[in-house]
Structures are given as C-alpha cells and as structure tokens.
Amino acid sequence: MSDKYSFEITDEMRQMAAAAQRQGLQKDLRTLAANIRAQAETRYSNAEPGWRGGVEWTLLWIENTASQLTEGRS
Asked: Model's pTM, two decimal places?
C-alpha cells in the first residue's frame, strides 16, 4: 500500500463513529416504537382490556433504552 493514502484513525474519529452509531440505533428504536403504537391502536382497538398495559410497557422500555444510548455522552 502506498504511503500517499495512509492516515491514522484517531480516538476522536472512533468516538464520532460510535456516537453516530448510537444515534442511528436510537432513531431506529424510536421508529420501531412509533410503528408498534400505530399498529396496536389500529389493529387492536376493539381487543380485550389489558393488552394496552403490555404495549405501553414495551413502548416505555424501548424509549428508555433509546434514551440511554446518548445519556451522559457528548
């Protein structure tokens, strides 16, 4: 390989890549939660009471997980 194209990957570059990855995953999780909510509201609107508790718990868990991905990180 030619030295003309070599470069060093710095810690800052690694941190930026990791932050971008966390933000992408966070966005995907929030999209998943929105899709679950929309499907549950339309598909199971006439279902027995009680299913909502499970769906709401799942949505909260997803949101908490998404929030923790960037919590306390710059």
From this structure: 0.73
Report the half-sphere exposure of 6 (CA within 13 A, side-chain side): 3
Rounded to whole angstroms, how far apart are CA atoms 71 and 23? 11
Q: How far apart are CA 47 and CA 10, in angstroms?
A: 54
Distance separating alpha carbons of residues 19 and 59, to the nearest angstrom: 23
> 47-62 as b/e, with b when 16 or more CB fall inside 10 Å?
eeeeeeeebeeebeeb
The tens digit of pLDDT for each residue in 43-55 reads 776 767 777 788 8
pLDDT higher than threshold 60 for residue 1: no
Q: What is d(CA 26, CA 28) in angstroms, rounded to the nearest whole number?
A: 5
Which amino acid is residue 41, in one-letter code? E
